[in-house]
Structures are given as structure tokens and as C-alpha cells.
Here is the input.
Amino acid sequence: MFEEIKAECRLAEDMPQGRVASSDSQSLRPASFVELRNILPSHIDVVSPLVDQLMRFVSRFRVADDNNVEIELALREALVNAIVHGNQQDPCKRVYVNCRCTTDGEVSITVEDEGHGFENDAVPDPTSPENLLRTHGRGIYLIRTLMDDVDFEQGSSVVHMRKKANAGSDTARKPQ
Here is the structure.
């Protein structure tokens, strides 16, 4: 039906280390992380299996809490937007996903499509009364609401999402 999802995993030791603020002090300490990269076809059928795979990956670094459901929903929305709106479900186009988890539980996800992008500031507010009955237009709102940081680049064909570390992640979960 369609080609397999291509994935690549990189450890922090394979690349220059980032730095994060230590929770114990104001100093910076090296950030250990694992990164998973995926390339997938523009088929809506690949969204759920990829989200399941990435959430299993994320759960290795974060304590299970309500924030993980928020990450899952934001990721699902970003993938559907990339496939449906960005790539117009064109089977020749791909979606590129990068998921980075630090050992203290921070999650950064980038979703990039091969579309022409859009003006993300021009997307109508789905909470305004005139838009409440619309059947589309809630994905970007949900992503912005559920994640701690959201940035759009390259004409909005790239979305960067970040969820800060949750309490207890560093001590409760370690990479296996």
C-alpha cells in the first residue's frame, strides 16, 4: 500500500552536546538526549502507528502524567496538518519528524512537510463565536495550547514544539 516509515535514532554521544539549566543551580550542565528521526509518506494511515511509536519513545524519558497526552494530541495534530494541508496528501511528498528527549524529560518535536506553507497568524481563532461551528481550524490552536513552546518556520511548513521536563523524570526514567 505504501512504503515503510524510515527511522533513525541518535544518541547524545553521537553529536555535540547541548546545555540546559540545572534544576539545582543557575549553572549550565551538559544535556544528555536521544533523538529519533522519521521520514514518512503522506498517507493519513501512518499517523497513528507513528504516534504510538513516538509516545513509547517519549515514555522512556518522562514520568507518565497528563502532559504526555498533551504531547500525543499535539503531535497527532501536527502530523495530520502536514499530510493533509501541507502536502495535500500527495504520495510523492514526505513528512519529516524529529523527536528529541532529554534524560530529564524535556521533549522537542519538529514536523516538516514539503508543502508551500501558510500564514499561521492568518488562521482564524476557533474559539471566536463565528468559528465555533467550523469543521476545521482547531489543530494549530490545540498545538499552541497543549505545548509549552511552538514556533513555525519556512513559511509554516516546519513546526517546532517543546514540552518542558516534568517533575521526577530524571530520577524515575533512564534510557535503556
In short: The CA atoms of residues 60 and 173 lie 6 Å apart. The helical segments are 47-59, 66-86, 139-146, 169-172. Residues 66-86 form the longest helix (21 residues).
